[in-house]
Structures are given as structure tokens and as C-alpha cells.
Amino acid sequence: MTISDYNNSVTLYSDRLFRFVLKSIKDIHKAEDIVQDCYEKLWKNIENVNGEKVKAYLFTTAYHTMIDRIRKDKRSVWAEETKVAEQSHERSYSDLGEILNNAVNKLPEIQRMVLLLRDYEGYSYQEIEELTNLNESQVKVYIYRARVFLKGYIGKMEAVV
Questions:
Q1: What pLDDT is recorded for position 84?
Q2: Taking phi first (over 0 means left), then psi (-120 to 50 degrees means alpha), and beta for anything else, what does residue 26 get?
Q3: Spatial distance between the Cα atoms of 69 and 45, rounded to a whole number of angstroms
Q4: CB under 8 Å to 98, separation ≥6 — which residues?
Q5: Contacts 24+ apart (CB under 8 A), 91-98
Q6: How is domain 3-76 classified at the CATH fold level?
Q7: pTM of the predicted model as reported, rounded to 2 decimal places
Q8: Spatial contact of 103 and 150, defined as CB atoms under 8 Å apart
Q9: Which is nearest to 34 in space by CA: 77, 10, 68?
Q10: pLDDT-above-70 percentage for the chain
Q11: Backbone dihedral region of 151: left (phi > 0), alpha (psi from -120 to 50 degrees) or beta?
């Protein structure tokens, strides 16, 4: 990988990488730090990374860095557990985006991340498999479970619209 390939990767992928991380962890400063860490790791590893696979490298690095950061934060901060089983949304709102964001925030980390990669970022199952080091059937199961939860949370579409 050349320096111009590195600079192109910053131009092409930094915004998408930031949106992916921010959507998952909901903290702008931590998301910025994670993206910066990813590009720092890419710079240190510039000779070993193929220019054609830089996107997969960056998203894989971001995913693993994000998981490490989340685990570290869980150890250092006591958080109250929230129960998401059997929750549904029965009130009428006109802002479906707000309802979906609330529902997505209640998903377990791994389900939220694979769902965002698939439905928000548009990655294929094979690309998600490479980014997360899960096999394709695991990715499909996590996405299915996330969608079932979202369907149960939102309830009937008539109640939302």
C-alpha cells in the first residue's frame, strides 16, 4: 500500500467508518478516537495491508477496537441492566426514525453491529463475516434475531403510523 492509497482511504472511508462506530457506541468523542486509532494502526501496518482490501481492514479494526472499548467501559463503569424481553411500542408517533433508533439501541451489541452493517451500511453477509470474524450462519442468525426484536418492539405498524 502506498501513501497515496492511504490518503485515498481516508477520503473514501473515514466518514462511513465514523458513522458505523458512532451508531454503535453513541459517543462522538469515543467514535473519533476509535476512527483515529484505526488509521493509526493502518499507518503502522501500511506495508502489510493490500490497497484493495483497505476497506475491510479498516472496518475490521474499527469493529475490534470498538468491542475492546465497550468491554473496557463495562468493567470500569457500573451500568444498570435493562430488560428488553417482551417490550413493545404501542403509542402512536409520527417519527418512525426515533422509534427505530430507540429499538436499535436496546439490541445486544453484536446484533446491533451486524444489523447496522447489513441494513445501514449495505454490506453483504460475506463482507460482514470478514469484518466480524463470525461465520455466515452466525451473521444471519444475529440479523434475524435483531429484526424479530425490532418487529416485536415496534408492534403493529398501524400504531406507529
A1: 46
A2: left
A3: 21
A4: none
A5: 91/159, 92/159, 92/160, 92/161, 93/160, 96/160, 96/161
A6: Rna Polymerase Sigma Factor; Chain: A (1.10.1740)
A7: 0.53
A8: yes
A9: 68
A10: 84
A11: alpha
Which residue has cell 415496534?
154
Q: List, for residues 11-42, the tens digit of each pLDDT value.
A: 988 899 999 888 888 889 999 999 999 999 99
What is the C-alpha separation between 27 and 87, in angstroms, rounded?
25
Domain boundary assignment for the chain: 3-76, 96-160
Task: State the amino acid at position 104 in one-letter form.
Answer: V
Average pLDDT over every residue of 109-113: 87
CB neighbours (10 Å) of residue 14? 15
* Residue pointed to by grid coordinates 458512532: 22
**How much is the pLDDT for 18?**
92
